[in-house]
Amino acid sequence: MKYTNPIQFNNSILSNPKTKRLGTKLFWSLFCPVLMIIIACIMSRANGVGLFIIGDSFDNFKNVMIMGRTAVMTLIAALALNTNLNSGRMDFSLGATGILACLFASLIVPGVDTVEHIFYFLLLSILFGMILGFIHSLVLIATKLPPIVISLGMCLVYEGIAKVVANATGSTGTVNLAMGPHTTSFFQEPIILIPLLLIVCLIMAAALCYTRYGYNKLALVYNQKICVETGINEITHCIVSFIIAGALIAVYQVMSSCGTSSISINVNLASSGTVFKNFLPIFIGGILARYSNQIVGLLLAVIGTTLLYTYGFDNALTATVSSLINGFSVFAVLVYMVDKYRFLNWLKMRRYIRKEKRLQLNEKGEMPNEA
Hints:
Blueprint: H1 12-15, H2 17-46, H3 57-85, H4 94-108, E1 111-112, H5 115-143, H6 147-165, E2 172-176, E3 178-179, H7 190-209, H8 212-222, H9 224-229, H10 234-260, E4 262-266, H11 273-276, H12 279-288, H13 294-316, H14 319-338, H15 340-363
């Protein structure tokens, strides 16, 4: 028997719409973080410093662990801010909430000299952070003022209480904690850092993706008025959001305090710097979340921005220039996210105009000028 038909290969896997969709999501999820990592490598090499390279192998490993702790702290702060930000509540009091929670915990556990004391200090700080977040939500619900007004007021109130508790004078103050030989490097250890990262990511992923709270949060992002009219209890959602944010920012502040064995007190809204320096990962993570989910998007954005700023800008640029670039980056992302549809429509209009001009030139027998 002789076969005359040509051989046909089954390429259903590549032509499968689900496979194409998955590939597109994977590409755009990794494009921005990989681009930032490449820029960080180029800037480090241009400055004569390799990525993660300081001196001997021990220094390199220590540098990686410091970067890991910075990334985890940024992720936790971004999750805390994102908890209320997506629902239309801007919270400037997060930094003051974390500082005051740690101060209250230090009254019970005055030192972080042992592993047991560090864990007690962490648990008590989380508890006080949840209580302070709950109080913030009650004030917001009772007064019915704009969230940004309440957050600024609560920031000043919490900063004032922290100053009184710490007996600070002037606009700044420091409360020293009794430290042990491993206090400053406790949250750099992989045996502590990796489980902490997994616990935070799993809890937040479960809360945002598999609970009614996460469903309501996603619905409130698009249209709060319709959601409330259809039966979503925004008051309960507000209270839960502030409690979660208080717990997360307490973890962030504990990691920061253990790294320096002290708690820094700031007044006059200076503690809101915790909020501003985590804007960029949140907005980039919000863009990347369209191709994955909120946790994965934030994690990829945090890794990319941490490497870019810690090993790219800080090695090649001064602190002033790095801060200026950060400000312009946040401004650009804010403009895009607030008015992105007009920007996209402008691009479509420009593409349509170029196409029409090209067609008119072809009809006249002329070729378009590529220059």
